[in-house]
Amino acid sequence: MMEETIVVIVRAIIAFFTLLIYTRLLGKQQMGNLTYFDYINGITIGSIAGTLATDLSSKALAHWMGLTTFIIITIIFQYLTLKNRLFAKVVDSEPTIVIRDGKILEKKLAGIRIKKDELMMLLRQKNIFDPTRVAYAIIEQDGNISVLPKAEYQPVTPFDLKIPVNPAGITTELIVDGILLKENLNQRGKDMDWLLMQLKSQGVQDLKEVSFAAILPNEQLYVDKFDDKLSDMVDIGDYKGPF
Amino acid sequence: MTRKWLINLVPVIFFIISISVMAGGSVLKNPLGENDHVFDAVQQIEHHAKNEDWTQARERARYAVSAWEKVVNRIQFSVERDHMIEISGTLARIQGGVEARDKNAILEEVYYFYDLWRNLG
Q1: Contacts of B87 in chain A (CB under 8 A)
Q2: Minimal CB count within 10 Å: which of A26, A30, A165, B1?
Q3: Which residues neighbour A98 within 8 Å (Cβ) at sequence distance 6 or greater?
Q4: C-beta atoms of B23 and A14 within 8 A
Q5: Smallest CA–CA separation between A16 and chain B, in Å?
Q6: Which pLDDT belongs to residue B34?
C-alpha cells in the first residue's frame, strides 16, 4: 500500500524548492516593504505550501496550482503597482501623518484605526518619549512609524559643525572561512600581492587561517583568524556546560 | 553568461520534473509491464463472475490485488490517499465476493471499481 512517509518527503521537497524559486521571483519588495496585505499574502502562500507537503487527502497538483496562482497574481500586482501610481495607492494605501508640530491628528489616527496608546508605543520604539519634540510622525503602509524631530531636537552632524569628514564607504568581504572572494578583490582595485602582504603584516601565513577578512571603508584590511588567541574569555552563562 | 543560463534553466527543469511527478497518475496507472494489468484483471473477474467460473475469478482477484500494489508504488505521488484506499477496499470486497460466490456483490464492486479507475489520476 501507499508509503506515506516517502510521499510526504517527496511532496515536501517539491514544496520547499517551489517556495524557494517563487520567493526569489517575488524579489526584495515582498521582503522589505511588508504592507498588511503582503503579510497576509505571505502567510497564505506559506500555508498552501505546507498543505502541499503534508495533506495526502488531496492531490499535490491542486495545491501546487493554488500556490502558483497566488504567486502569479502577486507578481502581476507588483508590476501594476510599479507602472500605475494610482493603482499602487489603491492596493497599498498611503502613508498617514499622525503628528504635526507636536500635535496629534486625531481624525487621521482614527482613519487608520490606531489608538493613542499604540501611537505612544510606536514613538517610544523610536526613542521619542516627548511628542512635543516631533515635527512630523508618519505611519507608513507597513505599520511602522517614521519620525522627524523638530529641528532643535535633531542630532548634530559634522555638516552642522562644518567639520570635514572622509567620504562614506562600504566594507567589502575578501575572505570567508578561508575562501578568497576574487571578484571582490578586483572590485576594490586590489590584487593578490597586496592581500598577501597585508596578511603577512598581521601574522597570517595562509588564507586557510582566516575566518573573515574585509576591506574597511578606510582601505585598511580587517582580519579575523579562526584562532583568536583571546586570553581572557568572559563566560556570561549562568551554568557550566554546553547550553 | 553560462552561469546565468544555468541559473535560469535549473528551476525550469525542476518545475518540469515536479509537474510530471504530481500529474503523472493518469499515465502511470496504465500497465507498463506484465504484472500490473489491474483494469484488465477486474474486467476478467466480471466475465468469470457472470459465467460463475469461480476458480478463474479467484485467481484473477489475487492477481488484481498484487498488480494494484505495483501500480500504487508509482502513482502514490500524484493521487489522493483516500482514492487509493477506496480502490484497495473495492478489490478486497471483490475478493470477498469471489470467495462467497456472490455474483451480485462482485458486479456491484466491479462497476464501482470502474468508476474509481476512470477518476484515478
Answers
A1: none
A2: B1
A3: A104, A105, A108, A109, A112, A114, A119, A137, A138, A139, A145
A4: no
A5: 11
A6: 86
The string of pLDDT tens digits covering residues A53-85 is 999 999 999 999 999 999 999 999 888 988 998
pTM, entire model: 0.74
CB burial readout A124-146, b (16+ within 10 A) else e? eeeebeebeebbebbbebeeebe
Cβ within 8 Å of residue A93, ≥6 positions away: A35, A141
A180 has pLDDT over 60: yes
Pull the grid cell for residue A72. 502569479
Tell me the nearest-neighbour CA distance from B46 into chain A, angstroms.
Answer: 24
Chain A, chain B: beta-carbon pairs less than 8 Å apart = 51
Q: Considering only CB atoms, which residues of chain B are within 8 Å of chain A?
A: 11, 14-15, 18-19, 21-23, 69, 72-73, 76-82, 84-85, 88
Q: Residues A1, B68: contact at Cβ < 8 Å? A: no
pLDDT tens digits, one per residue of A10-30: 999 999 999 999 988 887 655
A210: left (phi over 0), alpha (psi -120 to 50) or beta: beta
A31 vs A177, more confident: A177
Yes or no, beta carbons of A61 and B19 under 8 Å apart: yes
